[in-house]
Amino acid sequence: MRKNRLFTTICLMAVALLAACTQDELAEQGNTLPEGEYPLQIGSVSITAEGSEEPWTRVGEKPDGSVWNDGDEFRVKFEGSDEVGTYRITDAATGAVEAVTPIYWKSTQPANIIAWYAKPQLNANNWMSLFDQDDGLAYVLRATADNASYDTPVSLQFKHQLAKVRVVTKGTVDVRHIAVTNAPVGCSVQDGIVTSGVNERVDNYLYETEYEGIGTCWEICLPPCSVQQFMVMSEAGGSSYFNIDNSVTLEAGKVHTITITAVIDDTQTIDLSTLTDTRVINDNGTYYVTGVGSYGIKVTNGNPNIYLEDAQISVSSGNAIDIQGGSPTIHVRGENTIETGNSLSNYAAGIYVAQGSSVTIEGRDTDDVLRVTGGADGAAIGGYSPALNSHNPCGDITIHNVTLYAYASNAYLNNLPIGIGSTGTTACGKIEITDAIVHAQGYSSLNESTPAIGAYSGVPQIVISGSTIHAHRGSYGTTSFADYIGRGGNTIEYQGGQIQCGSGSITGSTVYKYSYDVLTGSSSDEGTVVYDASGNATEQPQ
Length: 542
Known about the structure:
Layout: H1 2-28, E1 42-48, E2 73-78, E3 85-91, E4 96-101, E5 111-119, E6 127-129, E7 139-148, E8 154-160, E9 163-171, E10 175-181, E11 183-184, E12 186-190, E13 193-196, E14 199-200, E15 204-205, E16 207-211, E17 215-222, E18 226-234, E19 239-249, E20 255-262, E21 268-271, E22 279-281, E23 286-293, E24 297-299, E25 305-315, E26 321-323, E27 329-333, E28 335-340, E29 351-353, E30 358-363, E31 369-373, E32 381-382, E33 384-387, E34 390-392, E35 396-400, E36 403-407, E37 420-422, E38 431-434, E39 437-441, E40 448-449, E41 453-455, E42 462-465, E43 468-475, E44 485-487, E45 489-490, E46 505-507, E47 509-517, E48 522-531, E49 537-540
Parallel strand pairs: 1-8, 9-20, 21-23, 22-24, 23-25, 24-26, 25-27, 25-28, 26-29, 27-30, 28-31, 29-32, 30-35, 31-36, 32-37, 35-38, 36-39, 37-41, 38-42, 39-43, 41-44, 42-46, 43-47
Antiparallel strand pairs: 2-3, 2-5, 3-4, 5-7, 6-12, 7-8, 9-17, 10-15, 10-18, 11-14, 12-13, 16-17, 18-19, 33-34, 40-45, 47-48, 48-49
């Protein structure tokens, strides 16, 4: 028994001596660690969006900033070492990573860590192509962690090493492609440090994308350099080169937004802020209208194309856009406002369409917005009543691929205004709405009410397809005599409450029903009707 205890004591002493020798050996070896036993541990990774006009976005594109994608791989090395490891993002939401090819600590001494990400993949000479990014943007990100410890996971905060150029277009051209010229088409990337290549006079195409609040735009990522010239190709196939007024010097990690106004040949520009009288159009020309002004536009003849881009026409009297003849197409770009004064003495429409004329209002998509307000006894879009028992009929109205707000604003001589259509007892041309979002509002007095879309007397031909309609019929308090879409009504002849289209139809669309109380200026929800592709209606309760 005593021998056994003695033997145990001797063994324990031997272990203690062995441990002491191992620590002494490590100290003598300069804190060298066993080869391949202490891998670099990365706790998490993230991306910093540096100061810029807009969120940088991507490695994965999101409007709220740069994010990783699951499966993204980046390279890591110890500063001063040639050994490079590869790590992969396993959870983009948390920044978790796993080692694909790990690198190992060789010493307990602190070290500086360098990490980088490159897309597209670098070639054998660490060269990255920046050419033709219309299929996807190029990215270089770099992170460092100083004085990292072998026994503590490191966190890596990546920063963009390229600059992003974002091009927004305005004007009358429907753009197909945009390219930057005389800019680098490649760069060297060494441990995440970018060295720009030589500028080349070639068309380097940009990536088409879309952001909420911006709409369609084109982007490219480039190393710090200066850019000034761009090529714009239209949907029709023609192309033109544009030099911006001052070259832009790109900074790494920043977004540089450039706006190019591209117009069709022979386009006449109308700057509303410079008008001193109503601008008359009487031909088939192309007109680009922008700015803010208090004088309107009158069309007397022809089939002109009128582009409204971020335009605001606000006249004190008369029709803001007065179509007395011809068949213009109004192309909507961005956010636009058309309104005429709402005093009781201003009998006018926002956009008047005389009988025998027509108007087409269209956007590129429903991100393009037009807001139209009529005057006393006038439609937002359509006809108006200039005097008691005197009514001006309206021609055809076509609305396509746009978001439209058409509001009546005031009534005086019991010639009740309407959102879209004709007032009084006069005729109304065909109203056609396709692939659009329309908010239309009628009006009401104590004894009479108008629909959101249609006419006061009778139902015109109304054709609606692929659209969302918010129809606010006029009401006086809780009382309305009008249809939501169709015709107006009064205390004697017709009490309304329908959706009707005359010889037209509603297909593949949704109509939201409201009553607009002129006393309070508010609308009440009164249900929804959904129309399938065959025009079958399903009523949904409010």
